[in-house]
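Re-run with default settings, no changes from the original entry. Doing this only to confirm the output is reproducible before filing.
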Amino acid sequence: MRNRFDEQLERLNVELIKMGALCEESISCAVKALFDEKSAAMIEKVNANEQDIDHLERDIEALCMKLLLQQQPVAKDLRTVSSALKMISDMERIGDQSQDIAEIAGFVHSTNLAGKVHISDMATETVKMVTMGVDSFVKKDLALAQRTIDMDDNVDRLFLDVKKELVDLIREDTKDAEYFMDLLMVAKYLERIGDHATNIAAWVIFSITGEH
């Protein structure tokens, strides 16, 4: 019985890694679309990934329910499965917000505007956070989960930098104010993605320690 349970837990890890990789790719493609005038292919990739993320969420949810109902795990195993259910909800939201960024990228055609603010730096940090959060679950690595949470401060600082940069740009160039406001929305979505990655890491800590 235990061997069967361990096999299903390993499958859960594999599926979570797949879902995390799709989230990472979606964030990267959505932001790259801001800097590439031929962005249609990247936007299409984000939209396709979002559908795959939704399918994986349903598959992982079904697997978790099977583990809960058929295996009736206790203590740490129960926390692991219940934490995975919470994590996939955050990853699904990351997919949605990446799609929101891609939608904005379809309207922001000036790569020069996007290059004036630290949007790509925010994207790099959030991708790292998602990667580290999922890895910390699979590896049961408490220190890695905590580092993921600590990185959210960097994302928040970058968001404040971007906001200040955009306010200054609007003052200098009012004719492009609408574009700059779109970029501010992109920064806000990235800041939210950082929050979701933080939630993922927090659930990892709970699954290991039992403490929120």
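The chain has one domain: 2-209. Residues 2-209 form a domain with the Methane Monooxygenase Hydroxylase; Chain G, domain 1 fold (CATH 1.20.58.220).
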